[in-house]
Amino acid sequence: MAQRTPARNENHPSDPMAGESIPASERSAVMEQRASRRTFIQSGGIMLAGGSVLGTNLSVARGAHAYGDDTLKIGLIGCGSRGTNAVIQAMNTDGATRLVAMADVFESNVQSAFRAINSKHGKTGPAGKRVDVDGARFVGLDGWKHVLQSDADVVFLTTPPGFRPLHFEKAIEAGKHVFMEKPVATDAPGVRRVLAANEIAKQKGLAVAVGLQRHHEARYRECIERLHAGAIGDPVFARAYWNGAGSRLRTKPKNVSELEYQLRQWQHFNWIGGDQIAEQHIHNLDVINWLLGEHPVSAQGQGGRDSRSDQKLSETFDHHMVEFTYAKDVRLLSQCRHVRGCWNSVSEHVHGTQGSCDISAAIIRDPSGKVVWQSSQKPSKDRGCQQAQHDLFASLRKGEIPNEGDYGATSTMTAIMGRMASYSGKIVRWNEAFQSDQMLADVDAMRSLKDIAPVQPLPDGNYEVAIPGQTKVI
């Protein structure tokens, strides 16, 4: 049961797929995407192939009525560093905003988020108190329900991603506009659940923003626009990287439940974090989907654990290398790694019939390697996170209803398909991955930290880790 935290005055060289034929069902779907790609690209998107009632339906006119000069009220579900910073950025936007409710599984997160937000925006403004959460700070696995019962206009869903489909579905049922972090799910059933809820959001006229903020960064937008206009001809090959040191594993405490341990170490468990390829590398995969205007039709790859030798602490890989195949045999070579002391890069690149482009640096070269264009825009320190909030809140105040749910789900599914490929060592096709019924956890049923965790250690204390060639993913 959720608890209210006490109010306090306290101020994130062989080619196994060469010549592979694309199934007719996937080929026709991709061709249909391409037919209307030019129109869709103008919107900056990518085309897609038991709780209590927490609110009432809102009409499409809600945005036009509620905004203008009115205060936009914010609810925060998930008080880690990303959620904290996202709310601070939202409250930096033009116009009156107020934080009215917040929730997290852990009280320490609620209180640290409150202190950070209050220190930035705690002063009373012309529209009254800006951080108004006395009696509205909730702790526990069901604390999110109380945020949805508040009068928040916009809710921020920034818990670990395993909970995202449930929270998103219920937020839309409650008639809330939503900002949700990526990825939007950790398995295919979760992706389908998000897509279904997103259709309801469209019907209700509810805004949906997703934390794939490169879509809002000026350099990326300028570069992608030039590539769409043919600056390097037709794309034939792309590369995407998120290679870095990663996070350290923490010793497993003796005085916490298995579920609590996994909630606190969520990056290292697939049901809640999705592995690095979904949790981080999704940004790079999303950029390539955005560039090509479609999702891949298949993937094959490999990965493993070189630095994470202690299976008593984690079940995820520390590196993945995946080759994605798009329509017309365009390939994406994808790498992500969490190993210290190695070459690091977080970037996206594309090679075309008339040149190449470092998308992350916004540099275009001709076939000889000569730079023919470079953006004059300065790189954003936060990769567009602040601009994403400016864009969302400005749209709401104008009565516009942006929706990023479809491409957020598509890019999430792209990452999940890549994980399936590297875990299994098999070629995985989009349709079979998307239609998979493999659900990693039933988060709807979780009520207490004493509940049985979705993943249990083996008798020797080790967690089961995927073995390519043996692990089943479909």
TrEMBL record:
One of its GO terms (molecular function) is nucleotide binding. It comes from the Bacteria. Residues 220-356 form the GFO/IDH/MocA-like oxidoreductase domain. Pfam families: GFO_IDH_MocA, GFO_IDH_MocA_C3. Residues 72-211 form the Gfo/Idh/MocA-like oxidoreductase N-terminal domain. Residues 1-31 are annotated as: Disordered. InterPro entries: Gfo/Idh/MocA-like_OxRdtase_N (IPR000683), Gfo/Idh/MocA_oxidrdct_glycsds (IPR050463), GFO_IDH_MocA-like_dom (IPR055170), NAD(P)-bd_dom_sf (IPR036291), TAT_signal (IPR006311). This is Oxidoreductase domain protein.
